[in-house]
Amino acid sequence: MKKWFIILGAALLLIVSTFNYVLSKGEFVIGSTSYIAMDAPIVKERLPFYLGYGLHWDGFGKPTLNNVTLIKHDGTELNEDDIQISVTSMIDEMGVTGVINEESVIEEGYFNEYLPVENYKVDDNFLLVFRVELHEANYENNISHLMIEYKNFGFRQQDTLEFEGFFKELE
């Protein structure tokens, strides 16, 4: 009898380990990016603007997003108290946001269509939108990673992606 419990326990452990291994193999992939030049008029005037990033879920299941966090070069998280830049993340289910100023977002009615990141159920492809507001003219593009916290099959997980930031010198 004891032998059967050991065999059953080992089989159960193998099934759970395999299930966990398969679930942890999923990842988010950035498919399209948006940038704006530091010398663009909207940036110089420090007006809010929106940037869209196309992401794809490559894995089993349909994860539910919990949070999206930007990580600076020094490893710290960008938070709402940052004195140089403010960033808010949301989801654009319409899939239309590239680089757009806040005035146009409001006029076109996009703002009413943006969804919160928290509890967003990922299908396969989705458009992550950042509302960016620069507070200091001498801001250095110090964002290096994008951390996505999500649940898949009830398990909390996170995925960290390389992220080049919002600003790029356009050629």
Automatic annotation (TrEMBL):
What's the superkingdom here? Bacteria
* Protein name from the UniProt record: Uncharacterized protein
Instruction: Give the source species.
Output: Halalkalibacter alkaliphilus
